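Sequence design from tokenized structure. All designs in this work follow the same two-part layout: the structure record, then the generated sequence. An example of the structure record is given first.
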């Protein structure tokens, strides 16, 4: 079942469940486990509600157990520090009496006039020149496996346009550079709420990132003999942005070893401003065919 943007935004509006406690639901996608980006986004929402008016500038989380999409998720926030410039929070997400995810986040009071520099945006085709999710699902790109075409139809809340979708073909020509670029945005107009835009970007940031580590081996997370799972996720927010405008997710993977793949991402807005950075390590294990 495709998730609409309204569905996703509704799941980010957590229900109060006591002092610094919140409850969240997973949208009905038909997946057997909760998408990691949703838990990151909901945990960020929970902590933001305890941080006053300060915007988030960084988060660091660990996935411990797969989430059950049929059960509510409990979020317990711990207030670690309220300083003159920074606010620090920790959040544990639990189901069935066990923690499934833990994340810390730091919130920073704006400081106008500070030093400012940023890396330039890499070259990438304009999003309008790339196949839309509907075109990918319809078979515009030859030899895409059904699992890849289905992926682009599962989440109608987010529009993804990979710069090189052809690499997901059944018989790729061989290893690729360990990098990829994907344009992404919320599939509709969002309210003017910076905290909501931050949560939506946190949600999107778990899409496609780990797959970059497999590109170097001519593989993808859609291959049936690859077991992939996010293990941790970190994110830094540098500048204001809108999650409903096109954002370029430039990703690379400097290392994969011991069934662990490491990937990094830089998020640029359409004008070329670096607005966020990400890092993730995940499991990329070959399944035993025997």
């Amino acid at each position: 079942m495709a998730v609409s943007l309204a569905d996703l935004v509704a799941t980010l509006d957590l229900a109060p469940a006591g002092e610094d406690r919140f409850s969240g639901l997973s949208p009905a996608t038909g997946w057997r486990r909760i998408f990691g980006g949703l838990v990151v986004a909901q945990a960020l929402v929970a902590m933001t509600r305890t941080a006053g008016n300060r915007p988030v500038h960084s988060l660091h989380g660990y996935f411990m157990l797969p989430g059950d999409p049929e059960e509510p998720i409990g979020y317990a926030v711990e207030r670690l520090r309220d300083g003159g410039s920074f606010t620090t929070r920790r959040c544990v997400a639990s189901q069935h009496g066990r923690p499934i995810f833990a994340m810390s986040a730091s919130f920073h009071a704006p400081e106008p006039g500070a030093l400012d520099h940023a890396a330039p945006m890499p070259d990438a085709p304009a999003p309008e020149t790339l196949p839309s999710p509907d075109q990918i699902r319809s078979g515009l790109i030859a030899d895409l496996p059904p699992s890849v075409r289905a992926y682009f139809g599962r989440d109608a809340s987010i529009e993804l346009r990979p710069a090189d979708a052809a690499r997901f073909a059944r018989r790729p020509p061989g290893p690729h550079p360990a990098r990829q670029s994907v344009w992404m945005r919320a599939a509709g107009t969002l309210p003017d709420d910076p905290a909501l835009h931050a949560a939506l970007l946190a949600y999107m940031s778990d899409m496609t990132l780990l797959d970059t580590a497999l590109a170097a081996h001519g593989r993808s997370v859609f291959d049936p003999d690859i077991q992939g799972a996010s293990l941790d996720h970190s994110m830094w927010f540098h500048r204001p942005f809108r999650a409903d405008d096109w954002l370029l997710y430039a990703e690379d993977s400097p290392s994969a070893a011991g069934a662990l793949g490491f990937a990094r991402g830089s998020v640029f807005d359409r004008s070329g401003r670096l607005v966020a950075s990400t890092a993730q390590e995940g499991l990329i294990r070959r399944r035993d065919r025997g």
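The domain at 1-110 is CATH 3.10.129.10 (Thiol Ester Dehydrase; Chain A). We note this feature because it recurs in several other targets discussed in the main text.
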